[in-house]
Amino acid sequence: MITSEQNEQLRSWFAERLPVDVYASLLSVTVDREEITVVGEIPATESVAAFRERTREQRVEVAREAEELYRRKVSWAAQSGEERTLFTHLAVPVMTRLRQPERQVLDTLVAGGVARSRADALAWCVRLVGRNTDTWLADLRESLDRVQQVRAEGPDLTDPLADSPSDSQKSGS
């Protein structure tokens, strides 16, 4: 997880490197451990397919530089009006252990035709929680930013003198 300040620096990095004709405006840059997703608005008159084709070489060039610098894959999205289309994005496997009551929830979603598999049912649950708890998740992310800030302001644990007692402690005064 990165701080909001780091996220803003990342957004600025992309804004500086993307040619002005790629997006009408850069809407967001989101990052996690594996991936950076860049979302920009495209003109209402341009289709996503046309946008992808027109900007492919420019996006690939920026992505290569970012992937080398940040050690994460870069994914892209285009937004036209209220419609957002993600492309070249990752689907990362996640392992978990569930007890029977939790598995039964997933199995009910599969049996009800909501999902094709337990994995799809789990992804559906995560999307549902994400949609219905936006404010709570935003508050949690802000508090994590604050924790990282406080840690960064703490003592330098790599300082070899930090562990040794001061002269006054050695002499017993």
Tags for this entry?
6 helices, alpha+beta, 173 residues, 4 strands, 51% helix, globular, 4-stranded mixed sheet
What secondary-structure arrangement, pairings included, does this model have?
Layout: H1 4-17, E1 25-31, E2 35-41, H2 48-70, E3 73-80, E4 83-87, H3 100-111, H4 118-132, H5 134-153, H6 167-170
Parallel strand pairs: 2-3
Antiparallel strand pairs: 1-2, 3-4
Helix pairs in contact: 3-4
Describe the structure.
This protein is α+β, with helices and mostly antiparallel strands and about 170 residues long. It contains 6 helices and 4 strands. It has helices at about 5-15, 50-70, 100-110, 120-130, 135-155, 165-170; strands spanning about 25-30, 35-40, 75-80, 85. It has a 4-stranded mixed sheet with strand order 1-2-3-4. A hairpin with a 3-residue loop joins strand 1 (about 25-30) and strand 2 (about 35-40). Helix 3 (about 100-110) packs across helix 4 (about 120-130). The protein starts with a helix and ends with a helix.
What's this model, at a glance?
This protein is α+β, with helices and mostly antiparallel strands and 173 residues long. The chain is built from 6 helices and 4 strands.
Rg measurement, Å: 23 Å
Query: CA-to-CA gap between the ends?
Result: 45 Å
Q: Output mean pLDDT.
A: 87
| Run of helices and strands | HEEHEEHHHH
What portion of residues is helical?
40-55%
Q: Which strands sit side by side, in order, in the main sheet?
A: 1-2-3-4
Structural class: alpha+beta
- How many separate helices? 6
